[in-house]
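Teaching note: in complex prediction, the entire set of molecules is handled at once rather than each chain in isolation. The prompt given to students was simply: 'Predict the structure of this complex.' The entities are:
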Amino acid sequence: MIGAALAFAAIIVASTRPRTTPPTLRRATTQPAGPTRFPAPTAAVPEGYAGLAGEAQTLAEWIVARHPQRPQSTALAATIAAEGGDQETAATLWRAQLERHPETAEGWYRLGLYAVKEGRDGEAAEWLERARRLDPNLPDIQGHLGRCLLKLDRFDEAAIVLEPAIGDDRGGAVRLFHLGHARLRQGKNTAAQAAFQGAIDRAPSYTGAWYGLASALSRLGRADDAERALAEFRRLKAVDAGAAARNLSRDDRVRLQRLLAGWYAAAGRIAALDGDHNEAEALRLRGAAIDPSFPPPSTAPPSSAAGENH
Amino acid sequence: MVSSPLHRLALVVVVLVLILGCGQPRPPADTTPSLEADAAPIRFIDATKASGIGFVHTDGSSGRRYLVEPLSAGVATFDYDGDGRIDLYFPNGALLPGAEPGDSDPPLRHALCRNLGAGLFRDVSLAAGIDCRDYGLGVVAGDVDEDGFPDLFLTTFGAKRLFRNLGDGTFVDVTESANVADGEKVGAGAAFLDADGDGDLDLYAANYVKFTLGDHRPRSFKGFPTYAGPRDYPPWPDTFFRNSGDGRFVDASVEAGIAAVAGPGMGVVCLDHDDDGDSDIYVGNDALEGNFLFENDGRGHFRETALAAGVAVNRFGAEIGSMGTEAGDADGDGRIDLFVTDFQPDLPVLFRNLGRGQFEDTTAATAAGSGAWQFVTWGTAMADFDNDGRRDLFLACGHLNDNVEAFDDTTTYRNHNLLLRNVGGRFIDLSAAAGLHDIPRHAARGVACDDLDDDGDLDLLILNSREAPTLLKNLDRERGGTNHFCQLRLRGRQGNRDGVGARVVLHAGDAMFVDEVHAGRGYQGHFGTRLHFGLGNRTVIDRIEVRWIGGGTETFTAVPIDRLSELTEGSGRVDGAGATPTDR
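The expected output is the structure of the full assembly:
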C-alpha cells in the first residue's frame, strides 16, 4: 500500500509550508491502489517506540485508503499524525474532510487546536468559533475558544464564551480557571475569586487555580487569605515537582501502546460500520495484542465530536 | 509517530485522491497590517562578514548529547580598554568526551574582540592574556578593584574564572587569589552588584544543576535522541560572593540568605524592584522552582520573595522555562519591569512593575510574546531601537534539539530572531520588516545590545550555538532617523566605579525616562553599561537625576542630546565624552 501511495506521490506537489498559511491541496489525477487486507493480527508487536510509531503510521495510511468514505477514517488518521508531531499532515487531512463535510464541528475544532499550537491565535479563534457555531453545546470547544480569546486579550469575549460553558464534566475546572482569568482582566475580582474557588472545589490540587485565587484575593485586599492560597500553591507545586521527577521518561512507550490499541479499536469500529466484520475482528485482535489491558471495543462508531482529552 | 517526509506524503496523497472538487477551507483573512521594508521604523542588516569577527562557537558535541551542550553561552559587550568603543567577548565551549578535534582546527578558546571603529573588530584574546579554553557558559564585566577598567568574570562547566583587567590592554587570571572558583559546577548567568552599599562590587553567580559527565543520562523523545533537562538532576544553589575590598571575595551564600533555596538558574539581572535604593537580584530558573527574586535589605542580606511579588511564575501559575532575564521600563511609567524568555511553546513573560514591590504578568495585554509561540527564546534585550522613547524587545531564538523537526513540525532548530516594537505599550512583531527574516537563521543563544559603531543607535550581537555569531547593525541613523537620543556613562566616586545599580531618571519636557546600570543581564551575558535613552523628537533634556548605590541622589543639568556624556558622582558636572557619537 505504501509503495503504491509513494508511486502515486510523484504526481503530487507535496504539502509544503509556509507555516502561517495552510498548505494548498493539489488534485490527484489517478487513484492509488487501496489495501484489501490488514496484516495478520498474529504478527509480533514491535518492541521499541519507533516500531510502534511506524505501525501507527501504517494504520493511518491503511484506514483512509480502505475506508475512504468514512469521515471517521480521516479523523483517525489525523489524530495519529498529530500525535506523531506531524500537524501539517493532520491539518491537511481535516481540510480535506471539511471540503466534503463542512458541517463537521470537530474538523474546525482540530484546525483551531493546530493553529493554537503554532501560535496563530487569531486564526485559531476563528476556527474555534466556527466549530462552536456548529456545535454550540460542546464545552470543550467553548473552553478552548475562551482560552484562545484570553490569550488574545479579548477577555470580555472570553468571559461571554466561558461562563455558560462551565458544565459538569471534568473540564469544568479548567474552564472556571480561564473564566477566573478573564474576570481578573475585567477587574471583576470578586467574580474571579468565585471562579477560581469553583475550579478548586472541582479539582483541589489544581495548582494554577490556587495561584489565580491568590491573585484575586490579593486584589481584594485580603492579604492573609492570599498568602494562605499561595502557601497551598507552593505546597502543591512541590508535590507536582516530586511526581515529575519520578516520571522522567519522555519516550512513553506504554502510553503509545495504549493509544495504538485504541486506534485499532477505532479502526475496527469503522470496518464494522462498512459491514466488514472479519476485518473488524482482525483489527480488534491486533489492538489486544499490542495492549492486552485495553478495554474491549464498544460497537459504537468512533465519535466525530471533540472530546476532553483530544 | 515516526513521520518521515515520505510517510507524510503517502498519507496526504491517499486522502488527496479522495478529494475532487470544491475549494478547500481557507483560513481567516490575515488582517495584520504589512509593513514594507523601506517604511519599517526599525531596520537591521547583517554586518558580520565585514566586521572581521572570526569567532565560531562550538558546543563540543560528539553526538552523545550531554546536558551542557545546548546551553551554549551568553555574550558580552563592554569597553575593556577605555577607548570609548565597545568591545566584544565570546565565551566558547570545549571538546567533550567523544569529540575529536580536526587536524587543522585551531584550538578552541574564548574570544575577546577589540572594537577598531568603523564596524571592524580584531580578536586580541592572546595579546590581552586571555587564553581561556574552559567550557564557557556565562560572562559578566565589572570593575571589581575600582581601578577604572572592567574585569571579566566567566561561568563555565567547571570552575568559575575571574580575569583582572590591568588597564594596559591585558588581563591576568586571578581566580585563585580572588577565591571565586566555586568548585566544579554547571555555571550560568552572573551579575555584579554593590549589595551592601560599601562601594565595591559583589558578585552573584547562578548555577544550573548537579551534572557531571559521569552522570550523563541519555534521553529520547518519541524515539529520537534528545538532551536531558533540568528535571533530570537536582539543582545547585546559586553562589553569592562578597567583595572584601582587598582583591578577594568571600563566599557569603549562606550568610546572605542566597543558599536557602536552589533552582536551575540561568539568566540573572539586578534591579531595584521595590524602589528602596538598593539592588535586588532576579534569577530565571529553568522550568523548576519558579524564578527567584532576592529582596535586599540594603546590607547585603536577602529574602526570596518572587512568589509574593508575582514574578515567580506566569499568570497561570506555571513555571517559566526561563533562559534570559531583562529589566527595563517597558511601559514608561518610571518603574523597572521584568521580561523573561521561555521554552517553546510557552510565551516569554513581561512582568509589569505595579510599585510597592508587586508585579503582574501583562504578556497578553501587551502582546509581549508576539510571534514567539513556536520558538525557544534565549537572549533578550529591552532597548529603544528607533529612539522613539519606548523600549522595544529583541529575542534570540533557536531550539535545543538539532533534530526537533523530526518529531515536532511546529518549530525548527534554526530560527529567525524576533523584534517586537513597542507601540504605545503594546508590542508588534516587526521581525520581517526589520530585516530579520533576510538574515541567515541560526540556533541563537546570547544577545548583547550596545551602540557598537557609535552612530547613535543600538546594534545587536548574537552568539549562535555551533556557528559564527551575528552582528546586526541598526540602520536608524543611515536611513535618516530623526529621533534624538542621549547616552550616559556613569562614574562613581564613593560608589562603585561604573555606577552599577544606580538609577537614572531623565526628564525631558513632559516625558520621564528611567533606567538602571546593570552588570549582567539577558541570557548569561552582559551589555548596556553605557545607558542609552531614545528621546523621540525632544530636543532638550531638562535634568537628569542619578540615585547612586550607597550614596545620595544627584541632579545633573545641561546635558546635551545626541551624544555620549559622562556623569561623575558628587561633581554635578556633565563631561562630554568626545564629540557626538557619529563624529568619533
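Point out the following to students. Confidence is low (pLDDT under 50) at residues 18-23, 28-35, 579-584 of chain B. The first strand of chain B starts at residue 44 and ends at 46.
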